[in-house]
Amino acid sequence: MRKLERRAALCIVLALLLVAGMAFYVYRLAVNGATWVSYPANQDVYTDGYLSKGGIYDRNGTMLLKHTKKGGTQYSSSYATRVATMHAVGDKQGNISTGANQVFSSRMVGYSFLNGTFSTDNSGRRVYLSIDADLCRTAYNALDGHNGTIGVYNYKTGEIVCMVSSPSYDPLNPPTVSADDSSGIYLNKLLSSRVVPGSTFKVITSTAALETLSDNYLNNFTYTCTGTKRYGSLSMEKVTCPVPHGTVNFRQALAKSCNCAFATLTEKIGADNLKKYVKKAGLMDSYDVDGVKTIKGSFSFPSSGLNLAWTGIGQYQDLVNPCSMMVYMGAIANGGKAANPRILNSVKYKNGFSAGFQFKTKTDELINSDTADELADMMHNNVTSNYGSENYPGLDLCAKSGTAQLSSGQQPHSWFVGFLRNKDYPYAFIVLEEHGGWGSEVAGKAANTVLQKLISTDDLAD
Fold first, then answer.
1. What angle do CA 18, 23, 28 make, to 5 degrees?
2. Which helix (H) or strand (E) holds 21?
3. How confident is the model at residue 166 (pLDDT cuts 50, 70, 90)?
4. Does residue 308 register a pLDDT over 80?
5. Could you tell me if 327 and 338 are in contact, meaning their C-beta atoms sit under 8 angstroms apart?
6. Coil, strand, or helix at residue 182?
7. In this predicted structure, what is the pLDDT of residue 429?
């Protein structure tokens, strides 16, 4: 009897181990199945090391990349489209790790947990991105040969409709890149770079001022700018402005981008409060853009003095990710929260039927709703009182320029960030032209070109 009991107990233990093993296998299959299937060694979906199923299209159905069953890769017949969408789509060699060709390979081959890679004609699926290829071409041309990036996204739906990065190249004629190349040719700069923000950061400092300083202080704030604010006896211990701004109030300080006035405001705000609002704005976090993690911003917050002043101006050790700044612009426009950015619009079978659904999610509160409204008015005032509404005809624009100073002898980076308040076009944007020069003149001009194209595109009306 005891022998039977021992055998029964052993059978139960073996059965439990079998069930546990099966459960572990099913769990691993559910979590990693897509990765296993899309591994290049899988000859069912790869030929000669290259993906042989599925394709990538823009939001309007324009073919950007298509794989053939024999391992061939077809790109758009338009050279301009290939170059402008290179970093969004990806190259055949996989040098651009954040490209859709890499990130969405399992979706293209048609993998699902229940059916594996079953497809009636073995052609895989069509991945539709949220970008508009025509708008991307316009944006790439607007960079006018400068390295940099332009991004535009719908802050209500999260769709990134424009994402270009420069330098780029034709995937049909890939370049030979030296080991010491620093141009970032394989880098999607919207998602994966962090750059000195310059005066665009004053939007963050203004947010902190609006919420930590009293109404009485801000309403009565004035600063007489002579072009220099000294912090010590040495010639380098100073904050400078390109020109003396004279006496400015808070709104005028932002519109004229007065460094000396913002140095004073930053001292009043303090390092701890400034850090709190940078973090709340999401600039120290990463966004998950359909499986691609944006790089986090990097900041230092000296306790006081000259370096703290330059931090509040957007210099010192400030480094911001362009996508994170774009989302923050969307949060200002949308009353404090914005949709999380996404690049994947839909996945469909060859016959057009949907192969899944994409869901919209929102950010945490990045800015108080009342503060967002007030800041939006200040950013609109930047346009009307400084940049010139006539330079942005037909656009209800809120914006902030930035001229990010670099090492001695280098041209500054040119920034222009903001959003449209037109309810039919709920779009936020960033323009960064590396070593481009003056922000509103260079990046602002590119922004107008892209936004004019945006509002003339019927498909992009909300």
1. 125
2. helix 2-37
3. very high
4. yes
5. yes
6. coil
7. 98
Contact 239, 229 (CB under 8 A): yes
Q: Where are the beta strands (DSSP E) in 155-232?
A: 160-166, 223-225, 228-230
Q: Render 420-444 in DSSP notation, one character per residue.
A: E--TT--EEEEEEETT---HHHHHH
Q: Which residues contact 373 (CB under 8 A, 6 or more apart)?
A: 335
Q: CA–CA separation, 100 vs 115, rounded Å?
A: 23
Q: 177 is written with which tokens? A: 């890149």
Q: How many CB atoms are located within 10 Å of the residue 84 CB?
A: 30
Q: What are the pLDDT digits (tens) for 194-225?
A: 999 999 999 999 999 999 999 999 999 999 99
Cβ-proximal residues to 248 (8 Å cutoff; 6+ apart), any chain? 222, 223, 225, 256, 258, 261
Which of 451, 439, 443 shows the shortest CA–CA distance to 392? Answer: 451
Among left, alpha and beta (phi > 0; psi -120 to 50; other), residue 332 is alpha
Contact predicate 239/253, CB 8 Å: no
The residue to which tokens 């061939």 are assigned: 72
Q: Which residue has the higher pLDDT, 354 or 242?
A: 242
Exposed/middle/buried for 70, CB within 10 Å: 0-12, 13-18, 19+? Answer: exposed
Q: How many secondary structure helices (H) and strands (E) does the chain include? A: 16, 18
Give ∠ CA 273-278-284 in degrees, rounded to 5.
135
> 233: which DSSP letter?
S
Q: Which band of pLDDT confidence, cut at 50, 70 and 90, is reported for residue 41?
A: very low
* Angle of helix 271-280 versus helix 305-313 axis, rounded to 10: 30
To 10 degrees, what angle do helices 439-455 and 133-142 make?
A: 160
Instruction: List the structure tokens of 453.
Output: 């194209």
Contact 195, 319 (CB under 8 A): yes
Instruction: Convert 121-155 to b/e letters by CB count within 10 Å (16 or more is b).
Output: eebbbbbbbbbbbbbbbbbbbbbeebbbbbbbbbb
**Encoded amino acid at 325, one letter:** M
What is d(CA 319, CA 292) in angstroms, rounded to the nearest whole number? 20
CA gyration radius, the chain: 26
Single pTM value for the model: 0.88
CB atoms within 10 A of CB 39: 12
- pLDDT digit string, tens, across residues 222-269: 999 999 999 877 767 899 999 999 999 999 999 999 999 999 999 999
